[in-house]
Recover the amino acids of this structure.
């Protein structure tokens, strides 16, 4: 069925034969001949489609897991198909191109919709067609093949394109590549019901994901702007410990803002300032970061002007996307910031199109004000009220690091006249406990200061442990500053009650049982310490077997936590999903 | 209805039916109070109900009375949002109050129905002090022709365990009264431990007669299941972190609270058992694990 009838599909050849046949045979035979041509064309098309369908079926079933043999088999099949294609090309280069073109033209209509988007109108550029047919044969194969073979295929395809480009003028490169990448993106959406995509920020060691992220950043800023003014991808710094190589590790000395031009027309200056404050650690702490973010968004909304022919509800959300990507690169977003952003986006998209711009803007500003007031400030008041019942006279309370909420609770209890003393536990390299110590002593509360290595020594004296939280996960685990889990463990061993204070806006739907899968890596240079003029570890980068790890968060299992105090009341750690459910029902 | 009438009514209810839980008697009293109340506003009504509950606590300082009163108040307040007219509102409240009482009088039977299946033939059961719910469960199990024997702790200072032993003898169940201090000694012989509760707290732990905590610790050490049977109106909005954290007003008998100056000399009559020591709770809302109690409480109160 292959080569011989392929030749005959060529319209010029067909018409020539028709001329000959007209002279020799009757009309019926000529008509029959035409039908035969169409029929063989249809068979050719069907073969292609069947192949593709087989590939799709195979891809779908094998999408979950590919064994080595199956991968090898697929690779062999692809190479075979490519060889066949190349043979056809050699036989009659022009003829084979055009034959493929008519084959794919016939195929264009019934083709599955995912691929038809990339095949442009048949009367238009014929270039994408030959490119799309081979790539359509390759792309349906499962996406999670090793990148090596994709590179191989790409190289071969590129070589063929060069050859075709030499014989044919026209814009083959861009549309061809776009068609190819479009094809690659289509199968993932087909496979998505089978494979769940992991978030990008924990797939740093996968080069494809990084490429996708770079493309996404580009797409977010392509609005007719000068391409040199876009936000670059922030590069990782230093050797990463292999257990955490899937996370980003940035250096504080290379903030993203240095690579931006001034004035930056892509990112609002308030957001640039915020990004710098995040990456340098000037604004730190869950509540502080969320409030700063919301204030920056308020400034953005105030300065926003709806472009003509655009709706505020849709355009503003799109404007916010590059800002959020930028902030994410400066410092990974926290769970509380994620929830705040979701809320702002929801409010923006709920603005009706009838609203005038001034009215809409003031409404949004009020919404943000309300969120800050109710979810952060009033929640802190409510939590302080509940916690005071748990603080008795003659209590010895242990706190770790600097949590704004825990400090607030202690201030309120002290104002109400409770007599207690505080033990502040601190740890390197952030030494946040010093800030907490300063604030508590200023109020007149008597404090003791120890480092975390002394916690088992000091715990027999302690009557209660108060901890802050960065986020509360859906399975009851508490995500907090690194070291919290250790303190909770030792407190449980000494039978000292552990109380976690957390507002409900920090509750997130994520589930995590260990501190490895999703975390934040801080600048490893922070671990260097200078004493007596000498800096140990100064040349750590030169030692090939040495890696410095500066983790920021860890998770504490709910068995170590006795009580969680939220503005909804005191709940056990295992009831977090109930609160999330109740909250979702409310909204 | 003033304070003396209230207390008198309460005592009369307790006398009339000794098998009734003190919380149910308290709720009946509050319902009667509601019927006789001459207040003009909802807010005034709530205030006077709160005062009445406090008054009843002065008579019988158990956790159950407090929780029953609070639940009744909650039940009432949810009604008050729907109707504008006070008298209409009160009538609806009374109807709902009667309905509530009817429901909770069935709760003990519901609990017994759930729990008796966990008592296997030939089982040896350990229980603590006198609990009407546990008695009901054992009655049901005996009615199902199961053969089991019971060890009851004496439960000083009021020797309520002996009362329990008497009641069980009437059911023809072989029963042994043991010393409170002998719990560890007898635990290797028993198969399961069932106790009642005076109050179930938010964390999933229970407040019960003193000695329960010890029994729970010993059963955990011996890996024996520790079951708690309690009706849902005993769920209370407390969250103790340890023994010390339980409010004093529950720990001592009402007369002790009034007479004694220095409470540290008095003996506490209840203790708190944390949820980590409890295997399952049998309530009229179903069989719950300790962490599910908070879920139910959120549904009841929030």
């Amino acid at each position: 069925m292959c080569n011989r009838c392929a030749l005959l599909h060529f319209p010029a050849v067909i018409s020539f034969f028709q001329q000959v046949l007209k002279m020799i045979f009757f009309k019926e035979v000529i008509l029959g001949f035409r039908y035969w041509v169409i029929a063989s064309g249809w068979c050719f098309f069907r073969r292609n489609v069947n192949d593709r369908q087989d590939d799709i079926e195979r891809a779908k079933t094998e999408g979950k897991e590919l064994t080595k043999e199956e991968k090898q088999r697929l690779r062999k099949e692809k190479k075979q198909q490519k060889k066949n294609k190349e043979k056809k090309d050699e036989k009659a280069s022009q003829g084979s191109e055009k034959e493929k073109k008519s084959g794919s033209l016939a195929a264009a209509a019934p083709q599955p919709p995912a691929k038809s988007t990339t095949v442009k109108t048949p009367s238009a550029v014929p270039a994408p067609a030959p490119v799309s047919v081979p790539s359509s044969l390759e792309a349906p194969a499962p996406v999670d093949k090793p990148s090596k073979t994709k590179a191989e295929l790409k190289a071969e395809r590129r070589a063929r394109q060069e050859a075709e480009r030499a014989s044919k003028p026209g814009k083959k490169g861009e549309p061809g590549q776009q068609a190819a990448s479009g094809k690659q993106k289509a199968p993932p959406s087909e496979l998505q019901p089978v494979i769940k995509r992991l978030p990008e920020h924990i797939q740093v060691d996968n080069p494809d994901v990084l490429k996708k992220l770079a493309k996404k950043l580009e797409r977010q800023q392509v609005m007719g702007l000068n391409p040199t003014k876009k936000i670059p991808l922030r590069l990782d710094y230093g050797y990463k410990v292999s257990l955490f190589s899937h996370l980003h590790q940035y250096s504080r000395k290379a903030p993203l803002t240095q690579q931006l031009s001034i004035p930056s027309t892509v990112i609002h200056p308030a957001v640039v300032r915020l990004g710098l404050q995040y990456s340098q650690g000037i604004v730190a702490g869950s509540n502080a970061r969320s409030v700063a973010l919301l204030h920056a968004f308020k400034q953005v909304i105030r300065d926003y002007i709806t472009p003509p022919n655009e709706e505020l509800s849709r355009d503003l959300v799109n404007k916010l996307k590059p800002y959020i990507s930028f902030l994410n690169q400066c410092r990974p977003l926290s769970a509380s910031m994620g929830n705040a952003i979701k809320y702002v986006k929801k409010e923006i998209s709920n603005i009706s199109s009838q609203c005038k711009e001034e009215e809409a803007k003031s409404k949004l500003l009020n919404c943000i004000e309300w969120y800050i007031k109710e979810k952060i400030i009033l929640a802190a008041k409510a939590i302080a009220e509940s916690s005071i019942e748990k603080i008795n006279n003659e209590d010895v309370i242990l706190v770790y690091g600097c949590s704004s909420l825990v400090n607030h609770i202690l201030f309120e209890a002290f104002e109400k006249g409770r007599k207690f003393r505080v033990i502040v536990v601190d740890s390197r390299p952030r030494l946040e406990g010093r800030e907490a110590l300063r604030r508590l002593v200023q109020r007149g509360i008597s404090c003791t200061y120890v480092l975390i290595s002394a916690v088992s020594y000091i715990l027999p004296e302690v009557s209660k442990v108060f901890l802050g939280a960065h986020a509360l996960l859906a399975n009851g685990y508490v995500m907090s500053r690194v070291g919290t889990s250790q303190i909770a463990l030792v407190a449980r061993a000494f039978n000292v009650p552990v109380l976690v204070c957390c507002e409900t806006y920090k509750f997130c739907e994520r589930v995590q049982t260990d501190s490895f899968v999703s975390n934040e890596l801080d600048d490893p240079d922070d671990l260097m310490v200078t004493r007596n003029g000498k800096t140990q570890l100064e040349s750590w980068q030169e030692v090939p077997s040495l890696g410095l790890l500066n983790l920021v968060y860890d998770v504490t299992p709910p068995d170590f936590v006795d009580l969680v105090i939220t503005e909804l009341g005191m709940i056990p750690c295992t009831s977090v999903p109930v609160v999330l459910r109740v909250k979702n029902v409310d909204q | 209805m003033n304070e003396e009438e209230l207390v008198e009514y309460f005592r009369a209810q307790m006398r009339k039916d000794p098998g009734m839980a003190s919380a149910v008697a308290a709720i009946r009293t509050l319902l009667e109070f509601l019927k006789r109340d001459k207040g003009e506003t909802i807010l005034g009504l709530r205030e006077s109900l709160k005062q009445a509950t406090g008054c009843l606590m002065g008579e019988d300082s158990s956790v159950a009375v407090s929780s029953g009163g609070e639940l009744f108040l909650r039940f009432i307040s949810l009604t008050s949002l729907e109707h504008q007219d006070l008298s209409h509102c009160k009538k609806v409240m009374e109807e709902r109050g009667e309905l509530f009482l009817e429901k909770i009088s069935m709760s003990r039977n519901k609990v017994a129905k759930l729990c008796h299946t966990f008592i296997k033939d030939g089982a040896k059961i350990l229980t603590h002090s006198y609990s009407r719910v546990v008695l009901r469960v054992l009655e049901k199990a005996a009615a199902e022709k199961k053969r089991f024997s019971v060890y009851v702790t004496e439960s000083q200072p009021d020797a309520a365990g002996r009362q329990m032993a008497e009641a069980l003898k009437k059911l023809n169940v072989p029963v042994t009264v043991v010393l409170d201090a002998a719990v560890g000694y007898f635990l290797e012989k028993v198969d399961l431990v069932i106790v009642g509760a005076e109050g179930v707290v938010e964390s999933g732990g229970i407040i019960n007669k003193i000695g329960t905590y010890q029994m729970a610790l010993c059963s955990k050490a011996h890996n024996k299941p520790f079951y708690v049977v309690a009706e849902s109106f005993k769920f209370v909005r407390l969250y103790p972190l340890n023994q010390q954290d339980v409010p004093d007003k529950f720990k001592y008998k009402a007369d002790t609270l009034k007479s004694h100056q220095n409470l540290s000399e008095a003996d506490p009559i209840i203790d708190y058992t944390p949820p980590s020591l409890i295997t399952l709770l049998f309530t009229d809302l179903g069989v719950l694990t300790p962490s599910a109690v908070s879920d139910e409480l959120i549904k009841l109160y929030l």
In short: Chain A touches chain B at residues 390, 392, 464, 497, 499, 562-563, 568-572, 574-575, 578-579, 582 (CB under 8 Å). Chain A has 20 helices and twelve strands. The radius of gyration of chain A is 32 Å. Residues 27-62 of chain A form the longest helix (36 residues).
